[in-house]
Design goal:
Structural class of chain B: alpha/beta
Number of helices of chain A: 12
Shape of chain A: flat
Number of domains of chain A: 1
Bound molecules: adenosine-5'-diphosphate, magnesium ion
Helix content of chain B: 25-40%
Largest sheet of chain B: 6 strands, mixed
CATH class of chain A: Mainly Alpha
Number of strands of chain B: 10
Radius of gyration of chain A: 22 Å
Oligomer: heterodimer
Strand order of the largest sheet of chain B: 6-7-8-3-9-10
Order of helices and strands of chain A: HHHHHHHHHHHH
CATH superfamily of the largest domain in chain B: P-loop containing nucleotide triphosphate hydrolases
CATH topology of the largest domain in chain B: Rossmann fold
Radius of gyration of chain B: 18 Å
Strand content of chain B: 15-25%
Number of strands of chain A: 0
Chain lengths: 259, 264
């Protein structure tokens, strides 16, 4: 029991958890004192009860939005990694494409949502997916290709001295060296894609999605319910980030193992 | 047999023969660099040759030419009677650098096993050889550690074990002890000499340190920059090296000889 307690206290989750709970408490009590009507900002308990009251709607919307998020996350990550591998294999392609990608990445991709709606249909989830895939693609592509090229040149010479072919070097040296870069991007896009998917839903897509629920609730001044839908989105973002961190730990035991 | 040991004495010629070698980077280009000119060098099997000279005089370039990693502009490099590139394809040599350049994601064992994996050795053979190599560099208890859990000197020893694991007939080392402190460095020199004697490998070794060159080698090649040339070759005959060798008069005589060659 003592050991369990100690491992809880030293866990990296402990402080953020305590801090977060304390923050919620301050939020709750502070609003009770200064603004008991709760028109501007609802209290956490009010948000929770709204979540319960609108559970059917919000959970259905979360499933729909969640599907777009997860499918686009997978699609964008796979495309980003494959593109990075191809571009790394052919150096001239790398020199042409990577600066271009950095420039394109500076475009506010979410702002393209209305244009994609025009191309792929206002109520079709395809256009939402396309925007989120793009949103995920660029950070993954840029980081991964940077990781694949940012390798100790001596390690490459060593592999060449052992008569390794380019693909062998990519597989055994470049890919493992790129993992920290890749996971940095993965953790970034795991939250980014939730924000992106919801914002894109403000402009179009299915009617029973989190984004469109938030705009509808807010439009009918049901702010507590809007907050409940935002909460659902936040939980998805946190869950995805946690999954990405877990994958990072599992994939790179050498980086996290305590000696 | 997965054994790739090669017997250098079976070759009629030297372990390495370099003939009238020139190396120009970006020839014809405005920014061309004449890295090496008129290099002639013959390295006997089982000898220990050091290349010494100021930064930029082309030591690493010469080593990479011997390794077949780059091609000469003119002249030829022969390793074990073959072209340098052929010798590279045949994995005739092992290599170590100033940075240990271990693979962070591989344990000590997996780092040493890497060349053996590339050579297609069976798991059992790889394990057996790795245990032997770890004993040689005295790191057996760290077999399952990751590189970042080791000190710089220990990492360098793993890198040397990796270079020697498949018993190449030739070992190429580019300032391998350059980043180590004086104490560790002297210890590593003694260990390297022990391994050299135990394995009968031909060693080509780059250093900035005159005493290191004299202590280790049977032949010191003194190089000068712009253009990179071998200006003197000093044969060193100190017999078996021990810690006392460093205090002997003939050791100092060789140091003076190399220092003067470097000045001229
Ligand atoms: N790939 C390359 N391209 C152009 N110049 C190079 C290249 N490699 C080395 N050089 C030049 O060749 C000269 C010798 O370099 P190097 O062999 O690394 O010297 P050292 O190892 O003796 O310090 C230097 O002037 C260096 O700038
Ligand atoms: Mg050098």
């Amino acid at each position: 029991m003592n050991r369990f307690l100690r491992s809880c206290l030293t866990s990296p989750w402990f402080l953020p958890l305590v801090f977060g709970l304390a923050g919620l408490l301050v939020w709750e009590i502070g609003l009770l004192v200064i603004n008991p009507d709760g028109f501007v900002l609802p209290r956490p308990t009010e948000i929770l009860s709204e979540l319960q009251a609108n559970w059917d709607e919000i959970s259905q919307a979360s499933r729909n939005t969640g599907f777009i998020i997860v499918s686009s996350l997978f699609g964008g990550v796979i495309l980003g990694v494959v593109a990075a591998l191809i571009v790394t294999r052919f150096r001239s392609a790398n020199e042409m494409i990577t600066p271009l990608a950095v420039a394109v990445n500076a475009i506010p991709i979410v702002a393209l949502a209305p244009i994609f709606n025009n191309w792929l249909g206002l109520t079709s989830p395809r256009s939402n997916q396309a925007v989120v895939v793009l949103l995920v693609f660029f950070p993954v592509f840029i980081n991964t290709s940077r990781g694949l090229t940012n390798v100790d040149p001596n390690q490459i010479e060593l592999m060449r001295s052992l008569a390794s072919k380019p693909w062998t070097i990519i597989r055994r040296v470049r890919i493992p060296s790129a993992l920290p870069f890749f996971f940095t991007a993965l953790k970034l896009v795991s939250s980014l894609c939730v924000v992106g998917a919801i914002v894109v839903e403000y402009f179009g897509g299915r009617q029973d999605s989190l984004g469109s629920k938030i705009t509808t609730y807010a439009g009918f001044t049901q702010y507590d319910a809007a907050w409940a839908a935002v909460l659902a989105g936040s939980l998805m973002g946190i869950a995805l980030y946690a999954l990405a961190s877990l994958a990072e730990r599992l994939a790179m035991p050498w980086a996290t193992r305590q000696s | 047999m997965t054994e790739t040991t090669k017997d250098p004495t079976s070759q009629s010629q030297g372990a390495v023969d370099i003939l009238d070698l020139n190396k120009i980077f970006l020839p014809g280009n405005a920014s061309q660099v004449i890295a090496l000119t008129d290099i002639n060098l013959s390295i006997a099997p089982r000898s220990f040759t050091t290349l010494i000279g100021p930064s930029g005089c082309g030591k690493s370039t010469l080593l990479r030419l011997i390794a077949g990693l780059i091609e000469p502009t003119e002249g030829s490099v022969t390793v074990n009677g073959k072209t340098a590139n052929r010798a590279r394809q045949d994995r005739d040599y092992g290599m170590a650098f100033q940075t240990a350049s271990l693979f962070d994601w591989r344990t000590v064992r997996k780092n040493i096993e890497l060349p053996l994996e590339l050579l297609g050795w069976s798991r059992a053979d790889r394990r057996k050889r790795t245990e032997e190599m770890l004993e040689l560099v005295q790191l057996s208890e760290f077999v399952n550690s990751y590189p970042r859990e080791l000190s710089g000197g220990m990492q360098q020893r793993v890198a040397i074990a990796r270079a020697l694991a498949f018993r190449p007939s030739l070992l190429l080392m580019d300032e391998p002890f350059g980043a180590l402190d004086e104490m560790t460095r002297e210890h590593m020199q003694t260990e390297l000499l022990r391994m050299w004697q135990e394995t009968g490998t031909t060693v080509i070794f780059i250093t900035h340190s005159i005493s290191e060159a004299v202590f280790l080698s049977t032949q010191v090649c003194v190089m000068s920059p712009r253009p990179g040339q071998i200006t003197a070759k000093v044969d060193v005959d100190l017999g078996e090296r021990t810690e006392e060798t460093r205090d002997r008069d003939d050791f100092f005589d060789y140091i003076v000889q190399v220092r003067e060659a470097l000045r001229s």
